[in-house]
């Protein structure tokens, strides 16, 4: 699937009808996301509606990335988009539920058009919401209980447009009732067993493939949730 960074810039008009008119200019030009940019100085946007959790996330980010700048931290999507525009932020860390009535997919769509990679975080796994957000352009997902262990690596992967893979991420991608992605049987079995934390040798034996085939099967299953411009019209109207 062609990465967003390789696609030509396309002028768009982003219509935002949700919860009234947002107080920022949503007439934007879609440009490549800042993948593979110089990350010697990182600039983050953090969207989280719980003050205590917000403080913990930002403290962790500034601890593991000592030279990083926080362009915005809070729960207001319009302010975050404005900060992305003025600061050239490299990555957005976004709670799955901001408490503003927007779905995660709607939030991610707005941020995608602001040309910033998104790493989702949440205290409660919600596979369908996470899957929809990934299909709308989010890069990856990290459970809040694993922020200390995984967030840094997920952020680095998002910034460089490198696929992120972990059993916890895989677990929310296993298709369930209501999922819009249909995996091949071998992909789904490999993804399910990988999500359970089993090693490649065991997965290979269980599904009857060579050990070296397990990684590509899991990778292709995760890639099935990757956003493509071909899947959605240029104009998005979060309702």
Q: What report would you give on this structure?
A:
This protein has 239 residues and is of the alpha/beta class. It folds into two domains: 1-164, Rossmann fold; 165-229, Arc Repressor Mutant, subunit A (Orthogonal Bundle). It is built from nine helices and seven strands; from the N terminus they run E-E-E-H-E-H-E-H-E-H-E-H-H-H-H-H. It has helices spanning 51-64, 77-87, 104-113, 127-135, 147-160, 167-171, 185-195, 200-207, 211-223; strands at 10-11, 29-30, 43-47, 69-74, 91-95, 118-122, 140-143. The strands form two sheets. Strands 4-3-5-6-7 form a five-stranded parallel beta sheet, with helices on both faces. Strands 1-2 form a two-stranded antiparallel sheet. The protein is globular, with a radius of gyration of 18 Å. The two termini are 28 Å apart. 37% of the residues are buried.
Brief summary:
This protein is of the alpha/beta class and 239 residues long. Helix content is 40%, strand content 12%. Strand 6, helix 4 (127-135) and strand 7 (140-143) form a beta-alpha-beta unit.
